Amino acid sequence: MKIKNHLPIFTILFTFIIFFNGKKYDELVTQRLTTNVAICLEGEPCGAATSASSSPSAAANSVAKVQLSEGSEHTVKMLNNGAGGQMIFEPAVLKVSLGDTIHFKATDAAHNSASIDGMVPNGADSWAGALSQDISVVMNTEGVYVYQCDPHVMMAMVGVIQVGEATNLDDIKASAADKKASFMLNSDRLDEYLAQL
Ligand SMILES: [Cu+2]
């Protein structure tokens, strides 16, 4: 515990709380997700306390939605390092039209692309590329697909493709809650991807 280091901050915060809010401590803890000034009360870093709201809904609302990709053929690279982090598909989120083809490229070695059971539209074909193998998949069923790189799924090396309308998005989001439990790193990645749909 580093409470000593935070004492001046606590003092300022409590003063602020008493003067401007006049609320009880436990009420503020309850409200801490929506009240910036209360974020530091549990000894967390206070850097974000004065910035914009930290409410999850506000963050979700600010996510840029993925646009429909032009053309009927799309390339997804399998990378050790991409703009979005390590062990990653790029682009990790795609929105395409029914019947389009996705070309998964083994730009870096030792990755693959494999659809995840239970995370494709009903009746859709599954796929499973070998390690370091380019694979092309024709998207013949409407809905949302989630796929993974088998060796790096623990690092949340996953990708999302929306084909036509996101008819199964609720099912996918429910499955994603279970899937993310298997991630050791980048545990919010899949949620962030799905928020772009
Ligand atoms: Cu991989």
Query: Which spans have pLDDT < 50 for at least 5 consecutive residues?
Result: 10-41, 47-55
- Supply the number of helical segments: 5
Number of beta strands: 8
Total domain count: 2
Give the overall pLDDT as a whole number: 81
What is the string of helix and strand elements? HHHEEEEEEEEHH
Bound molecules: copper (II) ion
Briefly note the structural class of the backbone: alpha/beta
CATH homology superfamily name of the largest domain: Cupredoxins -  blue copper proteins
Please write out the topology.
Blueprint: H1 3-21, H2 25-30, H3 56-61, E1 73-82, E2 85-90, E3 93-96, E4 101-105, E5 114-115, E6 135-138, E7 143-148, E8 158-163, H4 169-179, H5 189-195
Parallel strand pairs: 1-4, 3-8
Antiparallel strand pairs: 1-2, 4-6, 5-7, 7-8
The structure holds copper (II) ion (CU).
The site of copper (II) ion has 6 residues, from loops.
In short:
With about 200 residues, this protein is an alpha/beta fold. The protein has two domains: about 60 residues, no CATH class; about 120 residues, Cupredoxins -  blue copper proteins (Immunoglobulin-like), CATH 2.60.40. It is built from five helices and eight strands.
